[in-house]
Design a protein that fits this description.
By secondary structure, the chain is α/β, with parallel strands linked by helices. Helix content is 41%, strand content 11%.
Amino acid sequence: MRKIVTALAVAAVAAGTLAFVPAASAAQPETAGYAPPSIKWGQCATPSLKKAGAECGFLVAPMDYAHPAGETVQIAVSRVKHKTAQYQGVMLVNPGGPGGSGLGLSVLGRNVPRHAGDSYDWIGFDPRGVGASKPALTCDANYFSYDRPAYVPKTLQQENAWRAKTKGYAKACAKNGPLLDHIKTTDVAQDMESLRKALGEDKINYYGFSYGTYLGQVYSTLYPERVRRMVLDGNVDPRKVWYQANLDQDVAFDRNIKIYFGWLAKYDNVYHLGKTGSAVEQLWYAQQRKLDRTPAGGVIGGDEWTDVFLQAGYYVFGWEDMAKAFDGWVHRGDWQTLKALYDKANTPGDDNGFAVYNAVQCSDVQWPAVWDRWRRDAWATHVRAPFETWSNTWYNASCLDWPAKPGKPVAIDGAKVGGALLISEELDAATPYSGSLEVRKRYPHASLISAPGGTTHAGSLSGVACVDDKVADYLATGQLPKRVPGDRSDAQCAPVPPPVPAPVATGPQQKADAEAKAAAEAKQSLLAGLLRF
């Protein structure tokens, strides 16, 4: 999935990937025999963690849990301790990706209303291969450099250029050695179990966003007796990891970008990009074609243009920034703002997140092994969903040549898990709503909160009181919305609201909207690793 990462976060082949690989059992003998050393806590290097009074350290874990006495990895961990006399245990947090850095998320507890997070030790961590963990994965730091080959391969030459590029990336990743064979979701779940042991806890609490929901599903299937409370926001459909999930995602993002174009049309008096969604859409694709021919500033081509606006399909956060960049380019030739947005999302010169994304997804399961299958599915999907289908195809195409043996997905089963709170906006493109309904079926003691009409991915703790108060209730007392019969959500809330451009908003509501927006964007800055999955 495009950084579902990420974010994050998601389509179809019944006879495809999963048919080739039987689901693994839920047995986990290797971890049971490993006793991790205690974590040596010290001062954190990150200013935001220092300010929050966090402690930092490293969890030492086996590279390969089947050989616990062999080579090790170091998992970077942070901790913000509980602030109340009533201690409710540790709360591990994962932001998604895969490949998102979670080290800074030990501060997330302060976003929970009514201080309901204060009774937990909040634990942020960079999964193996990520960020400050050692070793950190990297393959080709300049993979997202500027003016790349056109995403949509209109000629065989363009197709071959991208195939060579994705093959080259896979080949470059081979330098990471044994880590490539031991960075699956199951490996990270075992690291979580080692982290539980190192912290001296009988059970963990867990808060997972986007891909982090799949990590939570895997952990709770392997270690159901070790789960106390679990919040899963933006749920990955366990039936569709990972090839099918990406095709579904292509269709959903195409729907959501049209919703964004409609929003731009609504505020044509501000941005002057078209009075109807269709008019804005036509202008957007015209600019893409123009940039394919002549990159703006020699750097922002049609690919980079697509990537700049991909975030609009993930979140309503950032809609105004993208609108200003669109307006500035069309009306004033300002390409520098486009470049700044591209750099922020794609970080040319640092491919750690992308490298881990590939390493996890390409080795979690067997992907289709024949390029003709990829090409056929991409063109069939592109016909009805042209916005990101081919960009997403190339984003994942290194899996075709990945230099590590694929694993077998865990058969997700939450029947033994005492409870969980599931959250999803119903037009989430990165992890479509059907995934949350499927997870609800597999976790009979869970409850699902949905937001009809909402397009934001993994948006809890963003200032929507209806959602956030239910999170607070669950963390404070274990109270879940009452489960209702049928294949539907158990409670409904309003979605994260789209922004109102400043020149249009007036009166007291303007201040309230600005405050809500600031709070939401502060939370989203913590979850930057979500982008794409």
